[in-house]
Amino acid sequence: MRLYLGDEAATQALARRLKAALPAELEGWTILLEGELGAGKSTFARALIHALGHAGPVPSPTYTLVEPYTLGSGSIYHIDLYRVSSEDELEFLGWGELDDGLRLVEWPDRAPGLADVADLRIRLAYEGDGRAAEFFGLSQKGRELLARVDFSPL
Ligand SMILES: Nc1ncnc2c1ncn2[C@@H]1O[C@H](COP(=O)(O)OP(=O)(O)OP(=O)(O)O)[C@@H](O)[C@H]1O
Ligand SMILES: [Mg+2]
User: For the domain bounded by 2-93+120-138, which CATH number is listed?
Assistant: First the structure.
């Protein structure tokens, strides 16, 4: 699944479409957000966290590694692996204990093994003046989710 995102508002709108396809219960979901510097990962993550019901700011987890949110629908763990250099370091951030909510991971390529436990990979890339988003279902429930996302042009 691939969609062109002409401006920041389109990136945010796509995040809201993903929210619309997610189940009410966020427990046990892992979504990977790939893309080079400035591709729009944090824009997408912020819009998704807001769409899921968080009203306040969404600070970058670059230094804290994990920013947790407790919402009516469950927890969200916004994770940034930019400063992580190996899979072993995932234990330091308590990865294993974060499965009671949605793990939303920026720079997942720092820990390639995550692809085996994740549900969805979203890849953002520069395209013209905007960006392109590509979605890959990594698990059965991830593929089922993709079938529910509105991918009509934005
Ligand atoms: N579809 C789009 N078209 C054009 N600009 C966009 C689009 N989506 C986001 N942007 C802009 O790109 C810039 C970088 O976005 P953002 O900070 O979300 O990227 P990032 O992938 O998190 O980068 P980094 O890896 O450096 O943290 C922002 O100014 C944002 O407004
Ligand atoms: Mg960012």
Answer: 3.40.50.300
Q: Ligand 1 within 6 A of 24 CB?
A: no
pLDDT of residue 72: 83
Q: What secondary structure does DSSP assign to 29-46, as a single string? A: EEEEEE-STTSSHHHHHH
Domain boundaries, the chain: 2-93+120-138
Angle (CA) 81 139 147, round 5°: 110
Cα 60 to averaged position of ligand 2 atoms, centre (Å): 7
Residues less than 5 Å from ion ligand 2, measured at CB: 42
Percent helix, strand and coil across the chain, each to the nearest 5: 35, 30, 35
**What digits encode the pLDDT tens for the residues 70-108?**
998 889 999 999 999 988 899 888 999 999 999 999 999
| pTM, full prediction | 0.97
Mutate to test the pocket of ligand 1, among 11, 49, 58 (most ligand atoms within 8 A of CB): 11
Q: Under 8 Å CB-to-CB from 59, ≥6 apart: which residues?
A: 67
Give 127-142 pLDDT, tens digit per residue. Answer: 999 999 999 999 999 9
